[in-house]
Amino acid sequence: MSAKSGAKIFKQRCDQCHTVVAGGKHKTGPNLNGLIGRKTGSGVGYDYTAANKNKGITWGKDTLDVYLTNPKKYIPGTKMVFAGLKKKKDRDDLIAYLVKATK
C-alpha cells in the first residue's frame, strides 16, 4: 500500500467532489476529514441520503475496500456517482492515503 500513489488517485478520481482538509467546505460530496471511525452519513453539515444515514456501518479499511469497489452496490440509493475502483491495488493505495490524510 502506498499513500503517495493513493494521493495521486485521490487527486484524479475523488478531489473534484471531496476534500480531506480539516474544516474545509463540503463539495458535491462530503468533506472526508475524520472519516475513519465515523458512521456512514454522520459527517456534520452535509445532506446525506437516507441510504447513507441508515447503512449503519463504521468507516474503516475493510468497509472502504468494499465500498470503493462498487459504491452503489454497497449502499443502494447513495448519490455518489463514482463507479468504483476495480483494481485492488488502487483501492489499497487510496485507502492508505485516506487513513493518513483524514486524521
Describe this structure in words.
This protein has helices at 3-13, 50-55, 61-69, 71-74, 88-101. The model has no long low-confidence stretch (mean pLDDT 96). It has 103 residues and is mainly α.
pLDDT < 50 runs, ≥5 residues:
none
CA gyration radius, whole angstroms: 12 Å
Structural category: mainly alpha
**Proportion of helical residues:** 40-55%
Number of helices: 5
Topology:
Layout: H1 3-13, H2 50-55, H3 61-69, H4 71-74, H5 88-101
Quick structural overview:
The chain is an all-alpha fold.
Keywords summarizing the entry:
103 residues; mainly alpha
